[in-house]
């Protein structure tokens, strides 16, 4: 364990230095949900009034999940650049475990997501979102775990295809149904019954419902349980895939 923490820490420090030299991705990743919050949030007031409750308490959790998913999905692009420059091969010939090579990068992604989540929640509170400390903490933890799952999957897919031209359209293809069927922007109950039923098969919808319920202080065991279960399952599967790809000799 000590060796793993040391090796992953070395990778993490290198990744942080790279981000500090070029913080554009952090800024761009944060800008989209903030703009949604400022420009789209006020438009939701007539819709959310039908549901009851504070519009920002309803909207911020969705933006958190969107931030965790879409920001982390792009983590693999930098890995392709590292592979092309020979960094990955240089790391693989060291005694460091393949899991440490992945987790060192995940630490960076999770730290970046945490900072962005704090900014987003702070802005939501400033705009009038209801304050529920325990719910906010639970929602942020679920978001970070989901973001870690997406980042691990993104890294695994990046090392599998090794091409931005392949990765970009696949991410766009995945992002569209996730955005539309997870209830991030609008309640799925407002759509047709068949669309609402279809959305029940979207794991991210259950995560969104759990985060939103936590922010409202509604700790329904079914809703929270499904959200936590899917979050942990996705994180475990993505990490397993990521470590497996890093272990491949042709990675």
Explain how this protein is built.
Residues 24-249 form the ABC transmembrane type-2 domain. One of its GO terms (molecular function) is ABC-type transporter activity. The chain is 80% helix and 0% strand. The protein has helices spanning 2-21, 24-40, 45-51, 55-73, 75-84, 87-92, 98-126, 133-161, 164-181, 193-199, 203-215, 221-247. It is mainly alpha-helical and 251 residues long. It contains twelve helices and no strands. The protein has one domain.
Shape: globular
Largest sheet: none
Determine the number of helices (DSSP H or I, runs of at least 4 residues).
Answer: 12
Estimate percent helicity: over 70%
Mean pLDDT across all amino acids: 84
Radius of gyration: 19 Å
What is the terminal-to-terminal distance?
24 Å
Q: Report the structural category.
A: mainly alpha
Low-confidence stretches: none
Strand content: under 5%
- The arrangement of helices and strands along the chain is HHHHHHHHHHHH
Question: How many β strands by DSSP?
Answer: 0
Count of the separate structural domains: 1
Transmembrane segments: 23-44, 56-80, 110-129, 135-158, 170-195, 224-246
Family: Belongs to the ABC-2 integral membrane protein family.
GO molecular function, one term: ABC-type transporter activity
Subcellular location: Cell membrane; Membrane
